[in-house]
Structures are given as C-alpha cells and as structure tokens.
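Notes, Module 5: Reading structure tokens.

Key idea: the token line is not a picture. It is a compressed description, and you learn to read it the same way you learned to read a sequence, by spotting repeated patterns. We will look at two proteins. The first is printed below with its tokens.
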Amino acid sequence: MTCISQDGKFSLGEHTLAVPMELYKLNRERLCKRLSEVVDKDAYVLLQGGSHISHYCTDVDYIFRQEPYFHWTFGVSEPDCYGLIQVSSGEAHLFFPRVEEAHTVWLGKPLSLDEYKCRYKVNYASYADTLGETLNALKPSLILTLYGKNTDSDMTCKEAHLKNRQVK
C-alpha cells in the first residue's frame, strides 16, 4: 500500500506550521505510558472528535474546528470522528463517518480507510458506525473517556458517546 499523506504532516496550508504525524503518535505513547501506571492492561481510551454544526436551518456549516484534545491525540482534521487507544499497547483506532454517495457531489470522494490509516499513522481505520462492534470484539476491561470542567472557560468537556448509548 502506498501512503499519500501530505508528507505525513498536519498543516493548515502554505506558510503555516507543518506538524509531523509522528508528534501525535508520541502524544499517544506518552498518554498510554502515564495511564498504564494506574489502569488495567485491557483498558482503552475513547475520544470523540468535534462535530460539524449547521448554520441555523440551512445546509451551510459553521467553519469546523477540531476538538482540541482529540486533535492533540490524533491530529485529525475531519469532523464526526472517534478515536480508540489500547493503553497497554498504544494501538490506535480511528473511526470516520461514512459519506453517502449523493454527498460526494459536494464533498468530493472521501479517502479510503487505508488512506486514513496512512495519513494519521494509526494501526486501524474503520467507519464510525462500527465502533460499537469493535468495542464488543475488543472486550475492554475499562473504557476511559474525557469528562470534566475547564477551569478557565467554565465549560464542560463533552464526553464521548455512541448513538443511543452513553459510554462510561
């Protein structure tokens, strides 16, 4: 498989800082190292990225900005994604939304799962609607999610959740 990943870097365009994807992998490794000291080896971290938001009742979206913790962990720029990391091994899974064929007229052809895997330097890439199946197959002893209040903004961090089911 050939990896076409914009030179393996996150960048917002010409004349902006290009951040190597290896930095996000290093962030995940550091996170797992700290967590492995206090949680079971079969624990997983589940994070939910930011979502696109429509401008009122139109089909126009606000400019998307990724959820900061998700970006720190994965470097992903697409909305509506999930990330899963096994604490003991550091293996990373990314889950991307399926793009309906009719939407490709406006959105363009989406990357393949292999292209996402290459771009973001993760072990696995799947569709978001398979996250529940993946969790059931992995049988985690503990699922760690991000939840808490930011003391600067007084805003509460949104905890990852699956449709119709809160993940705890």
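Here is the second protein, with the sequence above and the tokens below, as before.
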Amino acid sequence: MAPRAATRAIGGAARLSPQLNVVVAAARRAGRRLLRDFGEVEQLQVSMKGPSDFVSQADIRAEETLRQELGAARPGFAFLMEESGEHGDPDWEWRWVVDPLDGTTNFLHGIPHWAISIGIEKRISESESEIVAGVVYNPASDELFWAEKGAGAFLNDKRLRVSARREMREAVFATGIPFGTIPRKPEFVGVLSRIMPQVAGVRRFGAAALDLAWVAAGRYEGFWELGLNKWDIAAGLVLVREAGGFVTDPAGGDPYAQGMVVAGNTHLHGKLCEVVTEGIAAANAGRAHIGRAHGRPLPKAGDPPWHEPGPG
C-alpha cells in the first residue's frame, strides 16, 4: 500500500508525510546514539573493512537502530544497507536505502561532518525504480535535510533552492578524492586539472550525502564523483532535484545504478558534465597510450569501478 499524503508540520511550516515522519524519527534516534559515540571517539572499537575503509562499532549500532525503527514502522519495506546489504522481499515494492554513517573517516577523526542518509525507493517495473523521498541528517550540527517528490526540499523547516550563480568563475564545486592504493586515479586528476582553472574553488569534505544536500541548499554550485554506491546518493538525488537542480551521470543519464554522479544548478550542471566527460576521456586516452607501451589491456565494461567506495 502506498504511503499517504503529507500531514504533519516541522517547526510550524513545512509538512512531513507519514513515511518521512518515520524516517526522521529513526534518523534522530540513531543520531543521538552516534553523538554519544562521537563524544567518545577515541574509545571506539574499530575493525578493518577494506583498503582505507574503516568501519566502527558506532556505524554498526546505528545501522541496527535504523533497521529496527524503520522495520517496525513499515514491515513490508525491504532494505539496502551499507554494512549488512539487502534484507526483505527480493520482489519489494518499497525499499529503504540506508547509509547509517556517511563520513566514517571524519567521524573517527573527530571532524563533525558526517551524516545519516536514508532514501525511500519505489519500484516502478521489473527493471525500473525511483527514489521518491530522502533524509540526510547531520546530528553534530542538527541539520536535517529532507525532500519528497513533488513536495520540495527543506533544511529543517526552511525551503531549499539551488544556487542561482551562472558563471563557472564564481562557482564552488565539491567532489570526492580517491585515496590510498585505489586504481584509476587518472580520471580524477583529468577532471580536476580541467575544472580548477575555471572555478572559484573545489572542496572535498568526505561525505557525499552532505555534498548533495549542500548543492540542494545552494552552498555549492555542483558536485561530481565517480564510483559511488546507491546508499551514498539515494537521499541526495531527490534533495537536489526537489531544490530545482539536476543530477545525472556525466552523459546526462541516470546516475543511480552506476554511481557516476554530476549534480548542479540549472545554469552550470551542463558545463560540469562537459568538464567531467572531457577529463575522463583524456585519462582514458592517456591510459590507452601507457597500456599499449607496456602491453597491458585497457579496462572494459564489467571491470571494477575506478576506485573502491570511500569510507561512508
């Protein structure tokens, strides 16, 4: 059964639908627990999950809290979760897409830039689905970004609109940086070397969900990153779109399946797509030359993504 229409106000202004009420309550509860752990960050037990990718007990506990809260409120919904993967009916009609702690490295270093990200995904057909609502919550700043298809995007009770800047030279963009022993760094360098001379600044704060939320809030003119996971971007996609912006892959297609994301305001999104496409093409051309010189095959469709997913 589809969730009902919006009914309840936040701060006496913007209204939350029943399903968003559920998400906000769950995010705030998990956020309170994360804040307690954040205050004792040096005592967290940390285990290695992969190269340069740490997962803390705080991350795991937050995911358990969210799964319990959301599952109790909507038992028919399936889950896609960062730590524990997929749960529920494989033929789901509705699904929670959850990153319990986006920005894990920031969290573990005591940097108050991390968030809980929850998207609501609706299946349209056997092969199609869409994100219809999402919440990105930073407990450290108590900033709650939320959006629902057709109802707008909000920060707490304030309506959001993307930036109105039209010129690249005035723009600040955000991105994610590949790190450690991650393969295929040339794509990042290729894009960055082309964008830096054209813009006012490039930022890397280490939490893709918040980067997208900040595009929706007009703090950034745009954001790009390649190789993201669905839980990194689900909530952010609907935030940017409901704030009047665009989110696509570099070719203008759907970014959700492959995690190749270019987000921006209406004036600069197209230009950012062009720069990202040019940077990737230049990197691939350079790699082709090196591959021929050393007798190595070029990457092809189906190969691993250009970098391992970042921490959160």
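Summary for the second protein:
- Helices lie at 18-39, 57-73, 104-108, 186-195, 208-216, 230-242, 269-294.
- The longest helix spans residues 269-294.
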